[in-house]
Specification:
The structure holds 2 protein chains of 2 kinds. Chain A is of the alpha+beta class. Chain A is built from 13 helices and 16 strands. Chain A has a 9-stranded mixed beta sheet, with helices on both faces. A 4-stranded mixed beta sheet of chain A has the order 14-13-15-16, sandwiched between helices. Chain B has 2 domains: about 120 residues, Periplasmic binding protein-like II (D-Maltodextrin-Binding Protein, domain 2), CATH 3.40.190; about 80 residues, Periplasmic binding protein-like II (D-Maltodextrin-Binding Protein, domain 2, 3-Layer(aba) Sandwich), CATH 3.40.190.10. Chain B is built from 9 helices and 11 strands. Chain B is elongated and about 60 Å long. In chain B, about 40% of the residues are buried. Classes of the chains: A alpha+beta, B alpha/beta.
Chain lengths: ~400, ~210
């Protein structure tokens, strides 16, 4: 039988040295911002019941979840998303807590992507959730936190703004089946103008049909709002558009004008977003590095309706970018190697602890002879070796007394 | 400014796209006399990458190419997430279900066997008909499979239908029509909107003029 004990499964990887430094740097920087804005850390289990992620409302297809059964034969999955379990946790365990509730997390998610595409199946995410708060103030707070956190890691990114309710309001007036609505949605999502036109040509011409036809092209700067306004026939789509515009203007006032894009054709898969949707993009990264939005109906699934908004950041992508830019260096050699002559081991350990306590990075030698210790120090680039016997002799890395 | 990078499917789609670029007025000399080079400049603002069809999708999806020209057949078989912004109109053909002449493919209750180069396309097609089918992937001339008795029918690309006729097969049903498409990486469209929209508009206009 073939043995797989020397490799890791597809889509996973070991993180070594500077990889870890880069990951921890990104996590520390982002969570530092979250914490400074009053968000507190939570961790949800890596294993959850499949029912928590019911594809009907989670939008997570069953084939991308890693599944197994527990000892009672119930289906469990490896956490494919963090927002849903946090909604579960808040709805069940923090019902009586004073709202709003501000939470942040740093944890892996697992998704079984199609093979050989180079995608990760184990992804590190960090993000925040602001639960129990509706409206513009909450939306702004979360977007501003996203921008502030990302800016501390990477200077240039674009922030994209959309609204899940806009498409829903526009198509609510159309006399179409749910299947057809889904076809329309997916061709808008992929900006497939040809397919969208083919579908819409089968419908009777109306202002709404015309509005839907233009939806995928409605993205860009502030001019988008003026282009979209005449297309809104009903109250709901006008109100949604006006809200988004107001939000946009507030963000411009905060100095984000040059990095914002509006995309009214941002129509996500059947997922849990109900209000604003936002994401961040960077050059040289083919996918969004941050994704978030308002999800007012999710907590309801767990018995405790409450409005909420949040986002998740792709930590792996940011860490890789920092490494590529040479902003994270491999770990350096320690300052001092402490070697004990025979019989002085305990004294040397105490001495090493003292050095470490006063801020030096030091290693204790595990070798028996001074020659071996010196050879090791040379190979590792350790520039000072302290020999402990009755006293302490200090030598430099090539064995000269100093 | 870094040039936009566009991946072209080597062969006929590459030639048709180059012709389209020339209609727009781009200088395509480098691509026409490419030798063995795979990355070539076109005009000042564009860089062409030549790749196999499925790889065009891979490069665009990962964002190492901003745009790509690839057949709808390849998108249906391999595509996941990118923008499909333009039907270029060339490279027209269709996916079809074909069976030996005179056989009634949809009759009877015995489950059928299909040979195909495009298992995902075939699977989606029969799933939409709620039919359980045994699929066998064939790499070369798929028409052989029913002739040798390996399968009941095939799902394959049909242009004129002459290969089918010469081998005693006939089209049972068209699965869908195919043509070349212009695809765009999601992040690229957001980050370089103006440049990409200009190129798409030029290509769209040139397509209509042809």
């Amino acid at each position: 039988m073939k043995n797989y004990n020397m490799i890791t499964p597809e889509g996973t990887k070991d993180l070594l040295f500077e990889d870890c430094l880069a990951h921890r740097y990104v996590e520390r920087t982002l969570t530092g911002v979250f914490s400074s804005r009053g968000f507190n850390e939570v961790v949800t289990p890596g294993l959850e019941f499949y029912d928590v992620f019911d594809p009907d409302f989670s939008g997570i297809a069953q084939e991308i979840m890693y599944k197994m059964s527990d000892r009672h034969g119930r289906l469990v999955v490896m956490r494919p998303d963090s927002t849903i379990p946090i909604a579960r946790m808040t709805a069940t365990r923090l019902q009586k807590q004073r709202k709003p509730i501000r939470l942040y997390y740093v944890q892996q998610i697992y998704r079984s992507n199609p093979g050989l595409t180079g995608r990760r199946n184990e992804m590190m995410q960090t993000g925040i959730e602001l639960l129990g708060a509706a409206g513009r103030r909450a939306d702004l707070e979360v977007i501003v936190t996203a921008v502030e956190a990302l800016s501390k890691c990477v200077p240039n990114f674009r922030l994209e703004l959309g609204h899940a309710g806009f498409f829903r309001a526009l198509t609510a007036q159309l006399p179409i089946s749910d299947d057809l609505r889904e076809d329309i949605r997916s061709s808008i999502e992929s900006k497939n103008y040809a397919a969208l036109n083919t579908i819409l040509d089968t419908l009777e011409d109306s202002r709404q049909v015309d509005a839907v036809r233009r939806l995928p092209r409605l993205f860009g700067g502030e001019e988008v709002f003026a282009q979209a306004e005449p297309l809104c026939e009903d109250e709901e789509s006008s109100a949604t558009l006006a809200y988004l515009h107001e939000l946009y203007q507030s963000l411009v006032e905060l100095g984000l004008g040059d990095r914002m894009i509006v995309d009214l054709g941002l129509v996500q898969r059947n997922d849990y977003y109900t209000g604003i949707i936002f994401s961040a993009y960077m050059e040289n990264i083919g996918d969004a590095i941050l994704l978030g939005g308002r999800y007012d109906k999710l907590s309801e699934q767990f018995g405790s309706p409450m409005p909420a908004v949040g986002f998740a950041v792709n930590v792996d992508a940011l860490a890789e970018l920092l490494l590529k830019q040479g902003r994270i260096q491999p770990p350096k050699a320690v300052d001092i190697l402490v070697h004990s002559d025979s019989g002085y081991e305990i004294k040397a350990l105490q001495y090493a602890s003292q050095l470490a306590g006063s801020g030096y990075k030091c290693e204790s030698s595990v070798f028996t002879t001074r020659e071996e210790a010196l050879a090791y120090a040379r190979a590792q680039g350790i520039r000072r070796v302290d020999f402990v016997n009755g006293s302490v002799e200090t030598m430099n890395g090539i064995g000269e007394k100093v | 400014m870094k040039p936009l990078r566009i991946a072209l499917t080597k062969g006929r789609l590459e030639k048709d796209t180059v012709a389209l670029f020339e209609t727009i007025g781009f200088d395509c000399e480098a691509v026409k006399n490419k030798g063995r080079k795979l990355i070539l400049p076109v005009g000042e603002h564009l860089e062409v990458v030549l790749a196999k069809a499925a790889d065009v999708i891979t490069y665009v999806e990962h964002g190492v190419c901003d745009l790509g020209v690839v057949g709808k057949d390849t998108i249906m078989e391999y595509g996941t997430s990118f923008y499909e912004v333009l039907d270029l109109g060339f490279g027209r053909c269709r996916f079809a279900l074909a069976a030996p002449k005179g056989s009634d493919f949809f009759s009877g209750y015995a489950s059928k066997t299909i040979a195909t180069k495009y298992p995902n396309v075939a699977r989606n097609y029969f799933e939409s008909k709620a039919m359980d089918i045994r699929f066998i992937k064939i790499e070369g001339s798929v028409e052989l499979a029913p002739l040798l008795g390996l399968s009941d029918a095939i799902v394959d690309i049909v242009e004129t239908g002459s290969t089918l006729r010469e081998n005693g097969l006939e089209v049972v049903e068209t699965v869908c029509d195919i043509s070349a498409r212009l695809i765009v990486n999601t992040a690229s469209l957001k980050l370089r909107k103006a440049e990409i929209e200009e190129l798409v508009a030029q290509m769209e206009q040139a397509t209509q003029e042809k």
